[in-house]
Amino acid sequence: MQGPLKAIHVAALVAFALLIALHAVPRAQQPPAAPPAPAAPPPAVPAPAKPLVPVATNTVTAHPDAYYGQAVTINAAVEQILSKSAFSVDQRRVGAAADVKRTPTDVLVLVPTIQSPVELNAYVTVMGELVKFDPAEIARKAKDYKLDLPADVVAKYSGRPALLATSVINEKFVDLAKRLPPPLNAEEEAYQKVMRQVGPAFAALRPAVEASNAETAAKNAAVLQKAFTDTEAFWKPKKAEPTLWAQNARKEVEAVQAAIAAGKWDDAKAHAATVGQACAQCHGAYRERFDDGSFRIKK
Ligand code: HEC
Q1: Test site for ligand 1: of 185, 220, 279, 298, most ligand atoms within 8 A of the Cβ
Q2: Is it true that domain 53-95+104-169 has CATH number 3.40.190.10?
Q3: Domain 186-297 belongs to what topology?
Q4: What is the pTM of this model?
Q5: 145-164 confidence digits (pLDDT tens)
Q6: Positive or negative, the Cα torsion across 233, 239, 240, 243?
Q7: Cα 94 to ligand 1 centre (Å)
Q8: What number does the ligand 1 atom closest to the CA of 232 have?
């Protein structure tokens, strides 16, 4: 680049940087929209299926129909604790004493997966679906949830907007609705190790059998045979049903091993498919997934 041209280039860059800086400064200094300053939005919340609409409690209570069925987020103070899994929130209003309440502006929040209680008056960010409160509707939407509200509270909020919350972020950025897995005891840890071998071994067995690859198929079948022997031993003193499924899985794996040894690949395929049914059967009844993606034995 030539001398004068370079100077112009640099000047342009400086001007551009200045423009950005000028833009950024007043923005950063702008006061937050609603005093007192609520906690910043929570970090790393998994993307919801629908976009979350940030709303104020008084907006929701004034125009609930516009929000029913929508995924919303509300940042407000806990006004009342109503039960183990329910509370109400309301935005703090400056000069609220003089304000005659025509429509109540508190919103009922129901948290089916609540793990620890919210604190009265603390700011929370709640996210979930806005629904018109009605116990039958809640039962339909949250199948495993048992509404634990006293009758007078049910009556008070019936027909009003309620948030069926999946996240309740407190001032320390802890999601109080997130179900974290309990710690493993030694036996459960050993069990988990076995399952973590079963996963990849089974994933490798199927294509090896499809490809008539005796060496890979036999190697993975041996891992599974040992793993299901251990699985069976784990369940035997505890529960009959999963013991039987583990035993069936082991027998099917042994049938796969025999078929591989005999070069009967169609038999090997058929028995490998049956092993897969045992996984689904047992996981459906005895495996539980937590919100962080980890698994535990369902108690
Ligand atoms: C008799 C019951 C039973 C059978 C059969 C069974 N599982 Fe599991 N599996 C469980 C349970 C219970 C858990 C949860 C325990 C855990 O992960 O700590 C689990 C967890 C797992 C996990 C997650 C491990 C982790 O925590 O990271 C994988 C992967 C898995 N199983 C794969 C399989 C596959 C593949 C099969 C079939 C080829 C199978 N399982 C058969 C009961 C079973």
Answers
A1: 279
A2: no
A3: Four Helix Bundle (Hemerythrin (Met), subunit A) (1.20.120)
A4: 0.64
A5: 999 999 999 999 999 999 99
A6: negative
A7: 55
A8: 1
